[in-house]
Amino acid sequence: MKTFHIGGIHPKENKLSKGKKIEIAPLPQVVTIPMAQHIGKPANPIVAVGDTVKVGTKIGESSGFVSANIFSSVSGTVEKIDFFPNIAGFKQQMIVIKSDGTDTWEDTIDRTDTIVNNMDFTADEIKAKITEAGIVGMGGATFPLGVKLSPPPGIVIDTLLINGAECEPYLTADHALMLEKAEEICIGVELLKKVLNVSTAKIGIENNKPDAIENMTKTAAKFSGIEVVPLKVKYPQGSEKHLIQALTGREVPSGQLPGSIGCVVSNIATTFAVYEAVEKNKPLFERVVTVTGTALQNPSNLLVRMGTSTADVLAAVGGIPENTAKVISGGPMMGKAIQNLDVPIMKGSSGVLCMTEEEAHRHKESNCIRCGRCVDACPMGLEPYLFYALSKRKMLTELNEHNIRDCFECGSCSFSCPAHKPLLDYIRLGKANVMQMIKKQEAEKAQQQEKK
Amino acid sequence: MLTVSPSPHYQTDTNTRKLMCNVLIALIPAFVFSIVVFGVSALISTLTAVISCVFFEFAISKWLFKDEEYSVKDCSAIITGVLLSFNLPNTLPLWMVVIGSLVAIGIAKMSFGGLGCNIFNPALVGRVFLLVSFPADMTTWSKVQDYGTIDGTTGATPLGLIKESIMSGKTLSQIDLPSMQDMFLGNIGGSFGEISVIALVIGGIYLLCTRTITWHIPVSVLGSMFILSGIMFVVNPELNANPLIHICSGGAMLGAIFMATDYSTSPMTSLGKIIFGIGIGVITIIIRKFGAYPEGMSFAILIMNAIVPLINKIKPHRYGAKK
Ligand code: SF4
Ligand code: SF4
């Protein structure tokens, strides 16, 4: 069974909503749509308070190369354009739209269920449609897809990989899509293949989803050049770098992007969005979200409009359990804990996870017993216990020498530590300090050169 | 109010205490066996060592460190006590056991800062201290005739026999060595916990199955011992013992499975662990062959303990490292 080579952990899967059909969430009365749902520059609002919009009306215009368009997810009136705290607590520009309840879509969007497989577009046309539809990486990284598909000169892409690993515990949204939308996903893959001008694509799926593997394999057989590859169940199988290693044996060199070794990775939800954007003219304004938690009555896979508040999403599955102490946007390994339930669903929100008090409780840390488990767990081959010690003492040069910048914050080290050391907390701190130090050094160097 | 904390929001169910308890469970077969063979004296000696180790750790953390959380709760002091007593002969006076415990906990463990900070394996430091302080008492073994009946005469360990006979100019075929079967089952002279290979191996398998330890250290220690002594045996079987005798006696199993795998005093990476294990195996055989002591496991482990910080300079294989 294919997998990545170094480290990795086996957290309890807890896929509570496994096998649940995708359900459509009730239409929200109000949506709060952030202008920054992606990495890069926030979009600029192009509507004004009082404007009427339809579902799929563009309300935010991409503001640069690394940016993305934003669309309305309800039909109604723009109520406010203001700054509200985002998921991290920073204030950010958002557009509040009050729904008129009619759910009127833009006429250009094909709302039928018919599967369209039209390959008459040129590569540039497909790319333009993807960029226009505001598609970003929906696995959580939210990097604009159009940018990924436009490699800088000199870089040749020869491999397209589709990430169906869904290695985060609890999450099942991609799984559900693979069961219900296999054909659409495969058409999406075909479209991406055409853009990149590659002849084959591989879809990697973790082996804990045999039904998805079977369904995708069956469907992929109708197309040419789509291969479904079962992967070993191991976190973080779905990390871009690790998926590439598992599927191609290649390693992305330290400090570089997958493009540097000719790979582009797109996840399942993103690929489905590509299909909808190109074949159905539907911009990205809704997505499948896993709403889950051990105390939840009915963990589900919900199709949710962007901008719906977390509270509304939870209400759709029977309300927030009383003993909830922590709500996470995303999965338990890399997701973010949210401060309040007003936080809206965005393009990168793969899950809403409620944790009970007991589950949210962090164990008290004790002495590091030097067991080496964090080292064995790290999928990047780093030494987390050392980072912890060095970061505490602010030894930045040493941190940099030990390649702390390679850490992608997967959390495997903190997860596996029997002494419950908050390793990643200190690694983040150390990383931020190292980045700062390097910036300063570079600025000084530049200054000195100017003097000469 | 929602709790906000950085990711990950998920933690392993295991903790230091559970790992230590796994080690204790793994020691049960050998413990039961020592009671069967040596009778109550094994029980009393082990209890003495455990109680004194726990007491010394408690006392030091309470009155010297003034800790609020007592580190004894993690159970590691119990392991030190058990391992120490397993390395002692059954005839050792109890006050010496207490002194050994004091050295193990007070000097080897707590003076470095407690669990995780110590460089040397505490139980071994205690044992070696006793060995150099009371060499006669530490090398007097009861001869085990049949399980449970120990006659008053003293019996030597297999390795002791070999050493003595070679020193006195005899060859191995001239002396009466215990059969392989006896060695496996523990029908030989030796310390409490080192004599039954089977009981120790069962414990080792338990540790591997519960992922308390990895295979790297035990396999590399025993493997390198076997290969090196095997070569010597092939070269001259009259002066060198059969490799099986080497790995089944003199605390080799106890050392390889329970002492060398001590977290704090062994390397972090898999490669480091293998280097560490090979070092122990090679040094043990060299001491057994050329040193004054018939067995060399304790010294070998302590010597390798000392260079663990050096071994830890070996970096793990990094993803995407420049080739
Ligand atoms: S968070 Fe960083 S250091 Fe920790 S395991 Fe993941 S990559 Fe390694
Ligand atoms: S996993 Fe925890 S206890 Fe073990 S070496 Fe790493 S930091 Fe120390």
Strand arrangement within the widest β-sheet of chain B reads 1-2
Structural class of chain B, by secondary structure, is mainly alpha
Q: Main sheet of chain A?
A: 6 strands, mixed
What is the mean predicted local confidence, pLDDT of chain A?
93
The beta-strand count of chain B equals 2
Small molecules (ligands, ions, cofactors) in the structure: iron/sulfur cluster
The total domain count of chain A is 3
What fold name stands as the CATH topology of the largest domain in chain A? Ubiquitin-like (UB roll)
Topology record:
The complex is a heterodimer of chains A (452) and B (323).
Chain A: E1 22-24, E2 30-34, E3 44-45, E4 52-53, E5 58-61, E6 70-71, E7 76-85, E8 91-99, H1 123-132, H2 145-148, E9 159-164, H3 173-180, H4 182-196, E10 201-206, H5 210-220, E11 226-231, H6 240-248, E12 263-267, H7 268-279, E13 286-292, E14 300-305, H8 310-316, E15 324-329, E16 336-337, E17 351-356, H9 357-360, H10 373-377, H11 384-392, H12 396-401, H13 412-416, H14 423-451
Parallel strand pairs in A: 1-14, 9-10, 9-12, 10-11, 13-17
Antiparallel strand pairs in A: 2-8, 3-5, 4-7, 5-6, 7-8, 13-14, 15-16, 15-17
Chain B: H1 16-38, H2 40-64, H3 76-86, H4 94-109, H5 122-133, H6 135-138, E1 141-146, E2 149-155, H7 158-167, H8 180-185, H9 197-209, H10 216-235, H11 243-248, H12 252-259, H13 270-290, H14 297-306, H15 308-311
Antiparallel strand pairs in B: 1-2
Helix pairs in contact in B: 1-2, 1-3, 1-9, 2-3, 2-4, 3-4, 3-5, 4-5, 5-14, 9-12, 10-12, 10-13, 13-14
One iron/sulfur cluster is lined by residues 377-378, 380, 382, 384, 407-413, 424, 427 of chain A.
